[in-house]
Amino acid sequence: MVTLRQPQPATRQILIVEDDEDTAEVVTAIMSQAGYTVMAVDRGQVALHEIHNAPPDLVLLDLGLPDMNGLEVLRQVRANSLLPLIVLSGYTEERDKVIALEAGADDYLAKPFSPEELVARIGALLRRVEWTVPVEPKLAVRQLEVDLARRVVLMRGKRLQLTPIEYALLVALMRHAGQVLTHDELLRMVWGDQYSGDFSVLRVNVSRLRQKLDENPRAPSYIVTVAGQGYTMPLRP
Ligand code: CA
Q: What's the CATH class of domain 13-129?
């Protein structure tokens, strides 16, 4: 039986990514008053860092950010996570909305919006998320299993201890098991755009992960090098 839980606003963390101070202040005030805990950042890179290290329950994302396009922030979030995300935008054209939704936004709110509307949209999205059994609660490839909700990794039933980066790398490879992921694709998915071309950080983490996954890391069977291309997790040994 699936238990339906009402969202508990007091325990919900909202990250607002907005460089316009007035908007950030107003939204923070509205959401705090509605009982949410709010954190505001004004840069896309800072937001990605926060989302990676301490995922909030919901993200409010402005599209016009000083350091990077909000759509790119959105795509990077969606490469790894189903985190509820609402785009707040000054663009009111229908096609801007469609682009944001296609990039993975759950909802789109054009500025200016009323406090009531914002609170209602957030409540509706959180309810939808919590009333839905997670689409992808577990990943499994051969003898490897990951419980995404609990962040638990099991190899042949035995729990592995992974760093957050190793975990993110493993999940990216498992989600695309059977496909080749290029070095840059993996760097983008796991570390973010600024790491493009930084192959040593990838190589080191792949090597550390192999030590944990494979009985014989010199003949890795879970993370296989595809010469000149990248890495793949084969669906069969
Ligand atoms: Ca802006």
A: alpha beta
